[in-house]
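Objective 1b. Sequence-to-structure analysis of Amidohydrolase.
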Amino acid sequence: MINETIKKAIQENSEEMIAIRRKLHSEPELSWEEYETSQFVFNYLTELGIECRKTEPTGVIGTLKGGKEGKTVALRADMDALSVEELNVDLPYKSVTSGKMHACGHDAHTSMLLAAAKALVGVKEQLPGSVRFIFQPAEEVATGAKAMVEQGAVEGVDDVFGIHIWSQIPSHSVACNPGPSFASADIFKVHFKGQGGHGAIPQNSIDAAIIASSFVMNVQSVVSRTIDPQQPAVVTVGKMVVGTRFNIIAENAEIEGTVRCFDAETRDHIEEQLKIYADNTAAIYGGTATVEYIRGTQAVINGDESSELVRQVAAEAFGENVVYDEKPTMGGEDFSFYLDEVPGSFALVGSGNAEKDTQWAHHHGKFNVDEEAMATGAELYAQYAWAYLNK
């Protein structure tokens, strides 16, 4: 199953891969602003002889046609950075742009997939089928994958595979359990309207601050008392803006939060309950509520066959001890939009190493990647494609 030419190519090109990652890390671009990054990717693939095209506005799709007829497997990497101030002040390749940072490892994903593409070019004539390379913008705002799908990223694709560097598991480990992996991630916004008035004359007012506070306290019972405990779910209120002045009873209150779960029926139920709780809470105090529920990413559900292939490839390429069982995360990933179209799976490659200070949580200003683990990710990309096409 494992191609030794691919393994050797990844090893020989690891220094170049790390250099590319450091370049991308120092030059972060936010979602839908990945112009320089996507141009670099386009040029690199073109120089490898891979047929590629740009998508609007900042995506890249490349296709490597093998020497034999067969299926098409897609490999995906995301490219965008975050609005995070880098705290790794002594890092020689730290971000040169204040307030922007690759704090989630997308620089590593892009570099690993470029290295995988280069390795697969080396076995092109033996490939029974084609490999589609998807370099996606705007994962951090959960809109990039959907846009890529709409522009034909997975048309004609039989299977899709993605990787995320993961600082929460040991370096070089590979996790890809069948079933739920990442949760659906939705946003809700609630506007409560009361009746403002003087802070010293409360009897003539309807206090939106009390309505909003009551809602925040009570809405947790949607999860604790209306959902099957065996169906994981999270409702978090992350923002509340109420009132205008210390001695004015608030007329308006704005609340924003997120909903995470794995089950479609649970998702529908929470959306409905949020509206019921908001309306009824407002009515108790004589106010009104307006709820906006915005569906974001779907849950990432790994296919049984694909995830098993990932685990087999990882065990054969790196050893049985590398395969890691990681529990599902309530984090969101728009890779789900590809899985809505074709079978596939999404793997985690460990990068957590306290000795190298790479154990920091994703989206933290001190997040960094154990660069030695990138070779694991790059080879996993390429070996998965090889194994799938040769099934």
